[in-house]
TrEMBL record:
Belongs to the bacterial histone-like protein family. It comes from Geoalkalibacter subterraneus. InterPro entries: Hist_DNA-bd, IHF-like_DNA-bd_dom_sf. Transmembrane segments: none annotated. Pfam families: Bac_DNA_binding. Coiled coil: none annotated. Keywords: DNA-binding. This is DNA-binding protein. PANTHER family: DNA-BINDING PROTEIN HU, INTEGRATION HOST FACTOR SUBUNIT BETA. The keyword DNA-binding applies. It comes from the Bacteria.
Length: 93
């Protein structure tokens, strides 16, 4: 499912216009993004949680040339699936 499909599903289920549904989805995503930028943890019970992990700088290799390069420190968002979602997905198989 992509963002536009999510917007369409919300509009259909809650009898909203596409534009209003898009505003709601964008508000949720923008709020989540802002929380992650501030290194806050996001937890949605029954679904999962999002956290930001910090990585130090390190020496890596360019896979094309084999040249050693310096990789700058970075932060990456991670999602950890919740128990309820994991169980629901596994029931389907």
């Amino acid at each position: 499912m992509n963002k536009s499909e999510l917007v369409e599903k919300l509009a259909g289920k809650k009898n909203l216009t596409y534009k209003k549904s898009e505003e709601i989805v964008n508000l949720i995503f923008d709020s989540m993004t802002e929380a992650l930028i501030n290194c806050d943890r996001i937890e949605i019970r029954g679904f999962g949680s999002f956290v930001v992990k910090d990585y130090r700088d390190y020496m890596g290799r360019n896979p094309k040339t084999g040249e050693v390069i310096h990789v700058k420190p970075k932060k990456l968002p991670f999602f950890k699936v919740g128990k309820e979602l994991r169980e629901r997905v596994n029931k389907q198989h």
